[in-house]
Amino acid sequence: MLEIERLSVRYGPVRAVEGLSLTVASDAAVAVLGPNGAGKTSTLRAVSGLVVHGGSVRLDGAELAQRSPRRIAKAGVVHVPEGRRVFGSLSVEENLRVATVAGRGRPARFSIADVYDLLPALAAMRSRGAWALSGGEQQMLAIGRALVASPGVLLLDEPSLGLAPSVADRIYDTFRRLKGAVGLLIVEQVASRVLGIADTVVVMREGRPVGSGPASEFTDPHRLARLMIGVGADDGAPDVPGPDVTEGQRAADV
Ligand SMILES: Nc1ncnc2c1ncn2[C@@H]1O[C@H](COP(=O)(O)OP(=O)(O)OP(=O)(O)O)[C@@H](O)[C@H]1O
Ligand SMILES: [Mg+2]
Fold first, then answer.
1. Which candidate, 111, 178, 152, places its Cα nearest to that of 25?
2. Distance (Å, whole) CA 227 – CA 233
3. Which residues pair with 163 in a beta bridge?
4. What superkingdom does the record give (predicted)?
5. Which ligand has the minimum distance to the alpha carbon of residue 205?
6. Residue 83 in this model has a pLDDT that exceeds 80
7. Helix ranges (DSSP H) in 13-109
8. Domain segments of the chain as ranges
9. What is the pLDDT of residue 14?
10. What is the spatial distance between Cα 234 and Cα 246, in angstroms, rounded to a whole number?
């Protein structure tokens, strides 16, 4: 279980994350939704030890805050970052083989054969150089690499970004099959797919949590949009606010 408590991340004067708390049980999926700049990537980077943070991040009760990114990954927190990092000069299969090294010392949950089973498109191109994969294929490979690294918790940063709908659907099918075996913390800007798999949703805006609860509470797109972009209060107010008339303008109109 991953427990994030009162997380804060600052870059100089920029408060990227402030007061974020959430829990990812080892068999659950949690979605973090928010617009550009909301602090989603910073949250995942903090959990992985890639940026200094305040607050507490615990894995199965053990504090991760003082550990290096390498040790955090070794403990089973596996991060699929924005922009899919794969080794372009290696083949698909070599990329997977290299990634198994990261999981050494933990019980292997997914073999390379399991990954090919989950993502058959990868099996078909196992000897192709990763440089010759499309964006969606690279994303599948990045997810395959994360799986063979024996994750306890998978951190997925906008896994559907830039993908054709059918490819994004396939990737979410994979997550659905993983759920139960691995804790999933999925960051997205687009809610539709992730709401189909998440147990819990946290909405962030300008670094702060502005709403959280069971995914079933976030199926109203108007409510979600209000939370994400901060238009009106989350109180059933109209979706589109009236014109922003100042007292001065009103006086001038009279
Ligand atoms: N290295 C950095 N130095 C300074 N400010 C940063 C840095 N990285 C991010 N920020 C700022 O921190 C805030 C949160 O950024 P972050 O990348 O976490 O947002 P995000 O929710 O992932 O956005 P997106 O959806 O665009 O990926 C933004 O205001 C961003 O400009
Ligand atoms: Mg981001």
1. 152
2. 8
3. none
4. Bacteria
5. 1
6. no
7. 40-47, 69-74, 92-100
8. 2-90+150-233
9. 95
10. 23
Mutate to test the pocket of ligand 1, among 10, 32, 40 (most ligand atoms within 8 A of CB): 40
DSSP 165-202: HHHHHHHHHHHHHHBTTBEEEEEES-HHHHHTT-SEEE
**Architecture of the domain spanning 2-90+150-233:** 3-Layer(aba) Sandwich (3.40)
Ligand nearest to the CA of 81: 2
- Ligand 1 pocket, CB under 6 A: 11, 14, 16, 34, 36-42, 189
Atom 3 (ligand 1) nearest CA: 11
Q: How far apart are the CA of 158 and the centre of ligand 2, in A?
A: 7
State the distance from the centre of ligand 1 to the C-alpha of 77, rounded, in angstroms.
Answer: 21
108 pLDDT tier (thresholds 50, 70, 90)? confident
Q: What are 182-196's pLDDT values in tens digits? A: 999 999 998 999 999
**Protein residue with its CA nearest to atom 26 in ligand 1:** 36
